[in-house]
Design a protein that fits this description.
Layout (H helix, E strand, L loop, with lengths): L2 H58 L14 H13 L4 H12 L4 H13 L3 E4 L6 E4 L1 H11 L4
Helix pairs in contact: 2-4, 3-4
């Protein structure tokens, strides 16, 4: 190999190293941009959810889970649904106690009747056995609520 060829080979190696360094620098510079774009996408998703909630509030005057079950018109049944959204799993007595605090009056018989209505509408489901019956919001209704709020797609 001649001296000229050796110099050319060294120059090619030097340039190759510079190109490798530049590729690394460009990759490092692009990372914050990619992270910023991912954060902007999340922000956009959250803003969309908030706008959806504001729109619901404008249209209905409130944003509440009973909006998902328009067939339930009774305010007591609607209150029970909201209670179950807030408290997860409760038995009839617990629901009646919370309802009494909220409305000033409540009976276990009324609560049982309203729970039956909500169960028939597939808004709630029974958890546990016949001896210890607890009630909770149905998984389907929770999913619809999260979609309505823009938390899930």
């Amino acid at each position: 190999m001649s001296e000229k060829e050796k110099q050319q080979a060294k120059e090619i190696e030097r340039l190759s190293n510079k190109i490798d360094n530049l590729e690394g620098m460009i990759s490092d510079m692009a990372r914050p941009y990619q992270e910023t774009m991912a954060m902007m996408a999340k922000f956009n998703e959250m803003a969309s959810g908030y706008l959806k909630i504001i729109n619901l509030y404008q249209q209905h005057g409130k944003v509440s889970p009973e909006m998902l079950v328009p067939s339930i018109k009774d305010p007591i049944a609607q209150d029970i649904l909201v209670i179950l959204f807030e408290k997860k799993e409760l038995n009839v007595s617990q629901i009646a106690d919370i309802l009494k605090e909220k409305r000033g009056t409540s009976s276990r018989k009324t609560v049982r009747d309203k729970l039956k209505e909500l169960e028939d509408a597939k808004a709630i489901e029974v958890v546990g056995d016949r001896k210890v019956r607890k009630y909770k919001v149905s998984d389907e209704l929770v999913e619809r609520w999260l979609k309505l709020l823009g938390v899930m797609k």
